[in-house]
Write a structure and sequence with these properties.
The complex is a heterotrimer of chains A (about 425), B (about 290) and C (about 325). Chain A is of the alpha/beta class and about 425 residues long. Helix content of chain A is about 45%, strand content about 15%. Chain B has about 290 residues and is mostly helical. In chain B, helix 1 packs parallel to helix 5, helix 5 crosses helix 6 and helix 9 crosses helix 10. The C terminus of chain B is likely disordered. By secondary structure, chain C is an all-alpha fold. Chain C contains 16 helices and 2 strands. In chain C, helix 2 packs antiparallel against helix 8 and helix 4 runs antiparallel to helix 5. The model of chain C has no long low-confidence stretch (mean pLDDT about 85). The chains are: A alpha/beta (about 425), B mainly alpha (about 290), C mainly alpha (about 325). Chains in contact: A-B, A-C, B-C.
């Protein structure tokens, strides 16, 4: 019995080896005239799955919407071919498949910086457009790629906004000279935390600010008390933290437990703006916490047009509110891509590139508040959306309130500085 | 001084959590000789079960222990019967591959069913802590610590005074002799594996008030549990308890004195050194021969 | 059934060369026509080389290491750093990386190889983890988690090729070289020593085999080729970062292919790579988009089933089957 099963197993495997050669070809011939195929490359499994899936949901909402509204080019529907990019190796394989087997001329992706770097290399070599919505590493757009477009801002934007705000607003509010302000930077040691914190550090050094601690930790750590104790010893006035969601909550719980004090806390990344953060830590203790991110639900509706709309679409389809800004980012990236495709008129990378470069929208014209103007191929950051900027917001009584930029700020908002002490 | 007290307390409390997780692993290894690479995923299942009971029935995590632990016992039993028993005398490499495969299956099945979202159980006591002698004691962690002590004591009594317990000890010491004495080895293996799973079930329930659960949570605790098990001597329950505390403290101090990011490096190096210098672990018996 | 004929057919030396030649032709054909297939071929050959290299210590010597990714990462990082910072050709960097990996393997071998069974496995896992954390947290040398991009300057001297075909041959060449080394080991004293060590260390010592030296030698040889594989991989992906180059999955996969194919056999790892790598890619392709994680559930199940029903691995199971059939036929004939 066992042996028979073993043989069946072997047979099945040999068959599937052949199937790998034959399978996808049939699929490729599917899809009629009325369908435009776009590759969607995100990490759907593995440790990046949560925000990878969230980002995908954003572009998926944008896709459903455009299809409901009649598609592009007078009635053609957009169809996604999904690729699961668990890591860089899988990203290359999946990009290769989307391009050469499925025949995609455009790939939209991909949330994680390392996945973009690996997969866009493949796209560039094959002359296929890579449309990035969420990866922040600086290096993505400094390689001079012609076919890569990044809708979201790069990591340097976090550093600039958060550190400038510290320098220009927080220091005066605390009545100290910026140079005397004690700044601590903490970050998870993955590519996201490292690149953002490096940008903050660089900007702080440029302004000659005093960094008293710069500590990395693993987002997988089960205990962060030693990090909190270390910070306590450094006595920072301002803490800049790049964190994912679960480690953020762990950090805050332990910070409260051990009585860590600071006058300002800025989360440089999206996690601090999640409603879960307030649910877990409470309205009182999150009061005054700042967050620097792609966009904010607390933006002036005049600035971030359609943020509510994305939230409504999301909760309608998935039965809850987004846990991060990534669905909105994905949605913005998606709608901009459809617009570019419409403008290009056909699935020709050269024309799409031309159309993308011709986009010219002022700040405040998308759901995140970004404008659109891509850097040309000769510029050092080719393909970067130059009008994508970060905002800085703050939790006030359980609501997000935007403090920066001026345009996104609702009239009459005041910043809470310093942070109130812990509730009892 | 204040720092030293606090760091020691934090380390010890965390160590209690680690010890609870490691105990199941070491029990399984001690008796069956199998290193369960899916141990972290068993923890994940227990945590999801706790979350589910809270979410659907509104059960407090501490009450749901009466459902989750038997459930984990049964799951452990089934897994042992289905896939551990057939490979019990296979080479180590096969056993490791089988449990590593199980770990992949469990983590990704959870991903399929539950998605990658992180979920938590909100309790009134989850973030409460106690100020005592200049240090803060997180209440759920204190509960975990006490539970680890109770668990160790219960196992002590079980091994000493019950037939099954003594049969397990006998099997762990000398399988052939135990067999000759009329112990049903197959049942003992099943029992040990199920007990180990129940043990990690306790851990899963007790950490739910402070942690989030998501499909890949297992990997967060798994390597630490391995280190502790080796440190305490594979198969030694009391060793696992002490090893847990030791790793907790080492982690807290190395994070504070060196850098939070290198705390794993520190205990991995200690781990390798102990393996090389004293492979049987701090409290270990002689190496088990397969 | 003419199974004995198949057996004798496959044992003829020219058959192997024929198989390699056929593979080459297929590779060439697909490499030119279908980049996606070429990509899979590259992965298959790369894994084939890695699995064979792992087989030296894990299969022949029976020392189950799950930390070989440490050597892989050393190879990838050494050549990349030398090339990106100093412009030294990756061909040279590959050799430097291999030498470095050999040195590390020598040290690790002396420290850990006297451990048995699960202890050794855990020690090697811990070692690889340490390497990953170090690579991620010394940004002044490794650029940390941000990783290093390798500039795309296609040239043979840079080990960077414009199309896939160059990489297909590169990885095939790699797999073939490792095959030759393994064949040498398989047929010479070292192979017998290692097999003897695997079966029984005490007896081996009493027979005059220097157990420690031979194990370390196997570890060093294994590490050298895994490091070379690391260089080839990084030159292909053109991007190195700690989480990919030091990912535990590499170690697990190397071991997996060998265990599936047949530990300590010359053809086991080759068979393992030929079958499992396409399956893995195929599953992700077919199921990855449908349900999150389904393809890995299936893959894990395949693994468990293999261990349960084919514990000796595919190659050895099939070989034994053929042999026992042959023996039966022979004895039947003898009976008549």
């Amino acid at each position: 019995m066992k042996k028979k099963l073993a043989w069946i197993l072997v047979l099945a495997m040999v068959l599937s080896v052949f199937a790998i050669g034959c399978g996808p070809k049939e699929e490729a011939s599917e899809g009629g005239e009325d369908v435009v195929k776009v590759g969607a490359l995100f990490p759907f499994t593995g440790s990046l799955a949560l925000l990878g899936e969230e980002s995908f949901r954003g572009v998926e909402l944008a896709r459903e919407e455009i299809n409901k509204n009649g598609g592009i080019w007078g009635g053609k529907k957009i169809e996604f071919v999904k690729g699961d990019a668990v890591d860089a190796k899988a990203a290359v394989a999946e990009a290769e498949r989307l391009i050469t087997v499925e025949g995609c001329k455009v790939i939209v992706g991909s949330y994680s910086s390392s996945i973009v770097q690996a997969a866009s290399e493949v796209a560039e070599r094959n002359g296929v457009i890579y449309w990035e919505t969420g990866g922040v590493a600086e290096a993505i757009t400094t390689r001079g790629f012609k076919n890569l477009f990044r809708v979201c801002p790069s990591s340097s934007e976090y550093g600039t906004v958060a550190v400038n705000y510290t320098n220009d607003e927080i220091a005066p509010a605390l009545n100290v000279s910026p140079k005397d302000l004690r700044i601590a930077i903490i970050y998870e040691d993955g590519v996201y935390g490292t690149s953002v914190s490096q940008a903050s550090k660089k900007r702080a050094d440029e302004l000659g600010l005093n960094i008293v601690a710069c500590e990395a930790y693993s987002a997988k750590a089960a205990d962060l008390s030693s990090l909190v104790m270390k910070l306590k010893n450094a006595k920072p006035d301002v803490i800049l933290a790049t964190q994912y969601a679960t480690d953020l909550m762990l950090f805050w719980r332990q910070a409260r437990e051990l009585g860590l004090k600071a006058d300002a806390f800025i989360g440089t990344g999206g996690a601090t703006a999640n409603t879960e953060f307030v649910d877990a830590i409470g309205i009182e203790d999150t009061n005054g916490v700042m967050d620097c991110a792609f966009g904010s639900t607390g933006s002036n509706p005049e600035y971030a047009k359609g943020m509510d709309h994305v939230y409504a679409l999301y909760s309608e389809k998935y039965g809850k509110n987004p846990t991060s800004i990534y669905p909105v980012v994905g949605y913005v990236g998606g709608t901009l891509l459809w617009e570019t495709l419409e403008l290009a008129g056909e699935m020709d990378p050269a024309k799409i590139r031309e159309a993308a470069l011709s986009l010219d929208k002022p700040e405040g014209s998308t759901a995140t508040g970004w404008g659109v103007k891509f850097a040309g191929p000769d510029e050092p950051n080719a393909g970067q959306n130059l009008r994508a900027g970060n905002i800085l917001d703050q939790w006030q009584d359980g609501e997000l309130v935007v403090l920066y930029p001026e345009k996104a700020r609702k009239p009459g908002t005041k910043a809470i500085i310093p942070l109130p002490s812990w509730s009892k | 001084m204040e720092n030293i007290i606090q760091i020691t307390v934090s380390g010890l409390l965390m160590g209690g959590i680690y010890a609870m997780i490691a105990m199941g692993l070491t029990l399984i290894f001690g008796v069956t000789g199998i290193v369960n690479f899916a141990h972290g995923e068993f923890l994940m299942v227990a945590m999801f079960a706790t979350w589910g009971l809270n979410n659907v029935l509104g059960l407090d995590p501490y009450i749901s222990i009466i459902i989750v632990v038997p459930l984990m016992f049964i799951i452990g039993m089934l897994v042992e019967k289905a896939m551990i028993q057939p490979i019990i005398s296979a080479p180590h490499s096969m056993q490791i591959m089988a449990t590593a495969g199980l770990s992949t299956v469990m983590a990704n099945a959870a991903l399929m069913i539950m998605q990658a979202d992180y979920r938590s159980v909100v309790t009134s006591y989850g973030t409460k802590s106690l100020m005592l002698g200049g240090a803060m004691f997180n209440i759920p962690k204190v509960v975990g610590f006490v539970a680890a002590i109770i668990l160790t004591s219960l196992f002590y009594l079980f091994f000493k005074y019950t037939y099954s317990g003594r049969a397990i000890t006998a099997t762990a010491q000398n399988m052939k002799a135990a067999k000759l004495m009329g112990v049903n080895i197959k049942n003992i293996y099943t029992l040990a594996f199920a007990l180990g799973s129940a043990c990690v079930g306790v851990a899963g329930v007790l950490i739910m008030p402070i942690y989030y659960v998501f499909p890949s949570i297992g990997t967060y605790f798994c390597t630490t549990a391995f280190v502790i098990v080796v440190l305490g001597g594979m198969g030694n329950l009391y060793g696992a308890f002490l090893g847990g505390l030791l790793i907790g403290v080492v982690e807290a101090y190395s994070g504070f004195l060196i850098a939070p990011v290198f705390k794993e490096v520190v205990y991995f190096i200690i781990f390798i050194i102990i393996l090389v210098v004293r492979p049987s672990g701090l409290l270990g018996k002689t190496t088990r021969s397969s | 059934m003419p199974l004995n004929k198949i057996e004798t057919f496959f044992s003829k030396p020219w058959v192997k060369y024929l198989i390699v030649a056929v593979l080459l032709v297929i590779a060439l054909y697909y490499g030119v026509t279908k980049p996606f297939i070429a990509h899979n071929l590259i992965l298959i050959f790369l894994y084939m080389g890695l699995a064979q290299a792992w087989n030296i210590i894990g299969g022949y010597a029976g020392q189950l290491s799950l930390g070989h990714v440490a050597f892989f990462g050393i190879g990838a990082y050494t050549s990349t750093l030398l090339y990106a910072n100093l412009g030294i050709s990756p061909w040279l960097g590959m050799l430097v990386g291999a030498a470095l990996a050999a040195a590390v393997a020598y040290g690790l071998g002396w420290a850990c190889l006297r451990l048995k069974g699960a202890y050794l496995t855990l020690a090697t896992i811990a070692f690889a983890e340490v390497m990953r954390i170090l690579a991620a947290n010394f940004p002044s040398i490794t650029k940390g988690s941000v990783g290093i991009g390798i500039p795309f300057r296609p040239a043979l001297a840079n080990m960077i090729f414009r199309g896939k075909i160059g990489y297909v041959f590169l990885s095939l060449g790699f797999a073939f070289v490792v095959y030759l080394v393994c064949r040498y080991i398989d047929r010479n004293r070292l192979g017998y020593y290692l097999a003897s060590i695997r079966e029984d260390e005490t007896t081996s010592t009493s027979m005059g085999i220097n157990v420690a030296n031979n194990k370390v030698l196997a570890m060093v040889l294994s590490a050298i080729f895994v490091a070379i594989g690391g260089t080839i991989y990084s030159q292909y992906i053109l991007f190195v970062e700690p989480t990919s180059e030091f990912a535990y999955e590499w170690s697990l996969n190397m071991a997996l292919l060998v265990i599936f194919g047949g530990m300590g056999s010359l053809y086991g790892p080759i068979l393992g790579a030929l079958i499992l790598v396409p399956i893995q890619e195929f599953l992700r392709m077919m199921l990855g988009g449908a349900f999150q994680g389904l393809h890995l559930v299936v893959f894990g199940t395949v693994l468990i089933l293999t261990v349960l029903f084919m514990p000796k691995g595919l190659y050895i199971t099939v070989r034994d089957k053929i042999r026992s059939k042959t023996r039966k036929t022979l004895s039947d004939e003898g009976g008549i």
